[in-house]
């Protein structure tokens, strides 16, 4: 009779573990979707920032004929840097939420 009880307990334990995994997955799904969107936005902005940095590294942009392009580039570089900082902060907070969910019930 003891073996039957152990088998039922093991079965119950496995079911509870599966339910816990499903709950974690359900909690993480929307967070992972937001994380993927953030990563795409970060990738796009990093590419734009690299292009701006390259443009500003070119000596010809500092000629008087390029003054307008220089001003626009410097302004946009500042905007992109601020957007990147905010997105990186959002990404870190989101990743922290996901890590918290992953560590639930592990103790």
Which key features would you list for this structure?
single chain, 2 helices, mainly alpha, 107 residues, rod-shaped
Query: How much helical structure, as a percent, in the residues?
Result: over 70%
- Total helical segments: 2
Sequence stretches where pLDDT stays below 50 over 5 or more residues: none
Overall average residue pLDDT: 92
CA-atom Rg in angstroms: 25 Å
The largest sheet is: none
Report the count of strand segments: 0
Strand fraction equals under 5%
Q: How would you sum up this structure, described in words?
A:
This protein has 107 residues and is mainly α. Helices cover 86% and strands 0% of the residues. The chain has two helices and no strands. The chain has helices at 2-57, 67-102. α1 (2-57) packs antiparallel against α2 (67-102). The chain is rod-shaped, with a radius of gyration of 25 Å.
Compact overview of the structure:
With 107 residues, the protein is mainly alpha-helical. The chain has helices at residues 2-57, 67-102.
Q: What is the fold's blueprint, element by element?
A:
Blueprint: H1 2-57, H2 67-102
Helix pairs in contact: 1-2
């Amino acid at each position: 009779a003891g073996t039957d009880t152990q088998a039922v307990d093991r079965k119950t334990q496995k079911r509870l573990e599966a339910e816990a995994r499903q709950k974690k997955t359900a909690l993480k799904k929307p967070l992972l979707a937001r994380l993927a969107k953030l990563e795409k936005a970060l990738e796009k902005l990093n590419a734009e920032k690299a292009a701006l940095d390259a443009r500003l590294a070119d000596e010809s942009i500092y000629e008087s004929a390029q003054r307008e392009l220089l001003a626009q580039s410097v302004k946009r570089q500042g905007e992109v840097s601020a957007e990147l900082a905010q997105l990186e902060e959002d990404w870190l907070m989101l990743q922290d939420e996901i890590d918290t969910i992953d560590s639930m019930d592990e103790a």
